[in-house]
Amino acid sequence: MTILCVRFQLPPMYEAALPGLLGLLEDFTPVVEALPPDGALADLRGAERYFGRSAVELASVIRVRALARHGVDCAIGAGPGPMLARVALRDARPGVTCAVPEDAVAEYLAGKPVAALPGVGAATARTLGEYGLDTLGRVAAAPLSTLQRLIGAKAGRELRERANGVDRGRVVPNAVSRSLMTERTFDVDELAPDRHRRALLSAAEEIGARLRAVDKVCRTLTLTVRYADRSSTTRSRTLEEPTAHSAALTRAAYGMYEALGLQRARVRALLLRAEGLTPADQAAHQLTFDPVDERVRRIEEVADRARARFGPRAVMPGTLAA
After folding, report:
1. Would strands 74-79 and 97-99 be described as parallel, antiparallel, or unpaired?
2. Using CA atoms, how far apart are residues 158 and 147, in angstroms rounded to an integer?
3. Can you tell me whether residue 283 is helix, strand or coil?
4. Half-sphere CA count of 81, side-chain side, radius 13 A
5. Worst-scoring range by mean pLDDT, 45-54, 81-90, 278-287?
6. Which residues pair with 64 in a beta bridge?
7. For residues 163, 165, 166 and 167, what is the CA-based torsion angle, rounded to 10 degrees?
8. Where are the beta strands (DSSP E) in 80-231?
9. Does the chain have fewer CB atoms within 10 Å around its N or its C terminus?
């Protein structure tokens, strides 16, 4: 299971809250496709590798955070692909994630009505039903030529594939998912600058690892400092070049923090957001002959492999600092 389809239980008058709720998904992956007014698709392949947890397990965390931070419950479907995750969502209910079994996709779909497939409208379902093709199992077993005569060559081929569990779709990120955020909250309001810096180091290393897990780089880094009196300060910095390099992200975070000139500020939380995400293979990089930088990048590669195999705690925060 790598794809989640999430529907937040939002009253109609609160549809404007969707962008904030999508931030919960962006905490785990930048590959998020909004489905207004109250839903989204999320590709958690990178998150599964980074956190060492399945998409279904991460769905439980998303549900708890939605309740704790926004007072909103959600229904979640999980599947190997976007279409299957949407189908699973129809059987989901608040508090329980419904997952399509990867080894029995055709069996899961067989007894469902044709209209359960996304994109199959009432007219198509009615036409198929008139010929006894009222379930996906019967559609899957029907001759391709029959389906093509009834609904057209292309539509018939695609419908038969999907009824057999073939999901060729992908999650297409849109404007609301071009960022990735992590937060460090202190147990008590923190005065010590060295504790602030350690939290920023940990956050920057997490952001870097998560970006590399999904082959993304960021162009802008934003720091938000929340204080004990519930006020906050936000600063953004455009990086010299798009990067997922933890050391570069840490330097930028430190620079923004020091520019604030905080004097014994009682800090409650630090938030770091990577914005302007683009595929790593499309980003230009300045060549460097710095042996220290090359060594740190090689260490990052080793650490990423360790996280992918043993989970995020396999590498202690701060061990990658240049």
Report:
1. parallel
2. 10
3. coil
4. 12
5. 278-287
6. none
7. 100
8. 97-99, 179-190, 216-227
9. C
Give the pLDDT band (50/70/90) at residue 299. low
Q: Number of C-alpha atoms within 13 angstroms, CB side, residue 217?
A: 17
Can you tell me the distance from the alpha carbon of 20 to that of 90, in angstroms, rounded to the nearest whole number? 24
Q: Return the half-sphere exposure (C-beta side, CA atoms, 13 A cut-off) of residue 233.
A: 15
Token look-up 């692909």 returns 81
- Alpha helix (H) residue ranges in 164-245: 193-213
pTM for this entry: 0.60
Q: How far apart are CA 106 and CA 103, in angstroms?
A: 9
Residue 245 has pLDDT above 50, yes or no: yes
Q: Specify the residue for token string 């794809």.
A: 3
Surface-to-core class of residue 229, CB atoms within 10 Å of its CB (0-12 exposed, 13-18 middle, 19+ buried): exposed
Structure tokens at 204: 């920057």
Q: Higher confidence at residue 322 or residue 258?
A: 258
Residue 70: name the closest of 38, 104, 31, 109 by CA: 38
Q: What's the token pair of residue 290?
A: 């710095």
- Phi/psi for 183 (5° steps) reads -130, 145
285 burial level (CB within 10 Å; 0-12, 13-18, 19+): exposed
